[in-house]
Amino acid sequence: MRKWIFFFFLLLSAGWMAQGANDITFKASAPSAVAMGEQFRLTYTVNAEAKDLRVQSMPDFEVLMGPSQSVSHSSSWVNGKSTSETTVSFTYILMPKKEGTFQIAPATVKVNGANYTSNGLTIKVLPEDKTAKSNASSAGEGNASSIGKDDFFIRMIVSDRDVYEQEGLLVTFKLYAARPCNLSGAKFPDFAGFLAQEVELPEQKQWEKDSYNGRNYFTVTLKQTVLYPQRSGDIKIEAGEVDAVIPVATQRKVRSIFDDFFDAYQEVNKKLTTAPVTIHVKALPSGKPASFSGAVGTFSMSSSINTNSLKANEAVTVKVTISGNGNLKLVKNPEVKFPSDFDIYDPKVDINSKTTTSGVSGTKTIEYMAIPRYAGDFEIPAVEFSYFDTKTNSYKTIKSEPYKLHVEKGEGGEGEAPVIANFSNNKESVKFLGQDIRYLKTKGFRFDPRGEELFVGSLAYALWYLIPLVLFIVFSILYRKQIKENADVARVRNKKANKIAVKRLKNAGKLMKENKKEEFYEEVLRALWGYLSDKLNIPPADLTKDNIEAELTKYGVDEALMKEFMDILNTCEFARYAPSQASDAMDKLYSLTVDAIGKMENTIKK
To answer: How far apart are CA 482 and CA 479, in angstroms?
Structure first.
């Protein structure tokens, strides 16, 4: 019995040790950037009793001190359960030997006989900041005039100012400060003419050091957005601005013994503004493949089929997956050509994407489902997907393999031929598709005796020819009139503007019910831009708020209705990068959009 108890506690202790091993973390930390001549700490932290720390050589840094070891213990009592934790830290004091970007290799440590490896670090060494010393000696008046123009400013950093249509570019708003400060407000541009995708930033923004124009600053990234231009031409990104609250040291008239320990500061409000930036957007080159549908970036495609053999009336699914980096959310579904006798259903689309500083990357999976109705051997042609490669500035086409499909007869002999029937006793109601023979009528007919009035030469016989002739003439006249009207492209676009806008708004209403906020605002924006482009006969590439207002003025549209349209456009464009929008705001915007288009339709009659 003692042996069994000992064995039980041995297993329990091993489980505790394994569980504790899974919870052990070993982490290295240091500043991401330091200046020449500046000392900094490199700290390795492990949440358990540890020993035998092994650190690889650091030839780019001078080790002034270390490693110094410190141990801390903490315990807590929560819901009747006691927990304790031990933290061991190993600290080095380092100083850089030269400027540049250097790597610190991972270190190892031993805990309970097992080795653990830390993360590696990248440290940027900046040149020594000489201008900061001279500026610090001249500060101290305690007002805005004591803040130099190069002490605090904000930059709009654009990754590329010459891009193709639908090619992504990164816009970064970065604050440069001679010393850390606070922000009381910010206003960023609405990126009109672009599809904007926000890069998620940490909620707690950390100050980092960076060098600009030969001077070192404290910097923080305020906003990063990936933009996809929706038209060619020059598109202007308006200026952004932030309200900074800057602490400025003040001079004391009466000094005390505490002045050696405490400094007096006064907060000064200063508005910092970026310069606007113009992006030159080039139209995509000619020679687009037939399967090109607007994809721009770097992509790959794969496809699969769930089965190559099935029975009639069973479903077959072709899955196409598009992966890569680019305007993934705007990529249209490639076409899968099923045999004409298959029942085809709407594809199921699933997008899994992430926005980073490199752009929008991820996968788009499309599942196409069809049902064969009768037996036979069929072929599903290869799926084609074309895109414009931004690395080579050329079009590329990807093809899958064609699929052979064998369909057997369904249960009970179903699938011999596609049959449509109403299950009545009337044999003529049974129609065979794929064959040209119907049931022959074997009874129920009669012969007219000779000598009675024949159908040939009667009034009914004459009308049988006359009525189709009259109808042919009428339809020919109407058809010619329709061709003439269709030749006027501007008139056709004008007539269909409201119909297309209503269709897009219906789709926006579905997105609103599904609480897909980003897709809802994008669809409303497309409906408004498309309606105005068709109604005013302005090409999408030349569509701006200024020429819309000028054109609406020509048609006599009152300023209130124009302002209503502009407010809706601004609201939609702002909502694309706003952190959140209430559902009632979407309801209100949807109603305002429907009402505004209705008023515009009654005002503009062309």
So the answer is: 5
- Using one digit for the tens of pLDDT, what is the confidence trace for 494-526? 777 778 888 888 888 888 888 888 788 888 888
Backbone angles phi, psi at 169, to 5 degrees: -140, 150
CA distance 41 to 28: 11
DSSP symbol at 250: B
174-206 as b/e: b if 16+ CB within 10 A: bbbbbbebeeeebebbbbbbbbbbebeeeeeee
- Among 125, 89, 87, which residue's Cα sits nearest to residue 107? 89
Per residue in 432-477, pLDDT (tens digit) is: 444 444 445 555 666 666 555 556 667 777 888 888 989 989 988 8
pTM of the model: 0.55
Tokens of 68: 């110094």
**DSSP assignment of 587-600:** HHHHHHHHHHHHHH
Contacts of 237 (CB under 8 A, 6+ apart): 156, 158, 171, 189, 191, 276, 277, 278, 279
Structure confidence at residue 411 as a pLDDT band (50, 70, 90)? confident
Distance CA 245, CA 270 (A): 6
Terminal CA-to-CA distance of the chain, rounded, Å? 100
Tokens of 548: 């819309």
| Rounded CA separation 391/297 (Å) | 8
Kindly report the number of other CB atoms within 10 A of residue 208's CB atom.
15
Rounded to 5 degrees, what are φ and ψ at 258? Answer: -85, -10
**What confidence category does residue 307 fall into, taking pLDDT thresholds of 50, 70 and 90?**
very high
Q: Beta strands 384-389 and 359-371: pairing type?
A: unpaired
Minimum mean pLDDT among 292-296, 408-412, 473-477: which range?
Answer: 408-412
Amino acid of residue 152:
F
Distance, in Å, from the CA atom of 394 to the CA atom of 384, rounded to the nearest integer, reads: 16
CB 184 within 8 A of CB 139: no
- Name 521's Cβ contacts closer than 8 Å, sequence gap at least 6: 572, 575, 576, 581, 586, 589
Q: For the chain, list the domains and their CATH numbers.
A: 22-126 (2.60.40.10), 131-282 (no CATH), 292-411 (2.60.40.740), 489-603 (1.20.120)
Tokens 């042996």 identify what position?
3
Average pLDDT over the chain reads 80
What secondary structure letter does DSSP report for 476? Answer: H
Q: Do residues 590 and 512 make contact, with C-beta atoms less than 8 angstroms apart?
A: yes
The half-sphere exposure of 247 on its side-chain side, counting CA atoms within 13 A, is 8
DSSP-derived letter for residue 6 is: H
Grouping H, G, I as helix, E, B as strand and the rest as coil, residue 237 is: strand
107-131 burial, b at 16+ Cβ within 10 Å, e below that, comes to: bebebeeeebebeebebbbbeebee
Minimum mean pLDDT among 72-86, 253-267, 450-464, 539-553: which range? 253-267
Task: Give the CA diameter of the chain.
Answer: 140
